[in-house]
Design a protein that fits this description.
There is one protein chain. The chain is of the alpha+beta class. It contains 1 helix and 4 strands; from the N terminus they run E-E-E-E-H. The strands form 2 sheets. It has a two-stranded antiparallel sheet. Strands 2-3 form a two-stranded antiparallel sheet.
Length: 83
């Protein structure tokens, strides 16, 4: 999990500080990166949708991509056993 910034369809917002308006274009967001075996991917996607869905703009997007190789540096394990 890491902090990210973006605006999507919300296109930012205006905040007032000490009587002056500021156009805030980037909105704070959370970025999750999950590496999992392909057999578990659909269940993880369903869980994220069930948990994060509010029905409002800004709920986020899910990208699914393949990873060609995973290596655990400490042990040298490769593939699924390195996850």
């Amino acid at each position: 999990m890491s902090e990210a910034q973006g605006y999507g369809r919300q296109r930012g917002h205006v905040e007032v500080y000490r009587g002056k308006e500021y156009d805030i274009r980037l909105i704070p967001k959370i970025r999750l990166e999950i590496l999992a075996d392909l057999d578990r991917a659909e269940g993880i996607i369903d869980l994220i949708i069930a948990t994060a869905n509010t029905g409002s703009a800004g709920d986020g997007k899910i990208w699914v991509g393949s990873v060609d190789e995973v290596v655990r540096v400490r042990t040298g394990e490769r593939g699924v056993s390195a996850i």
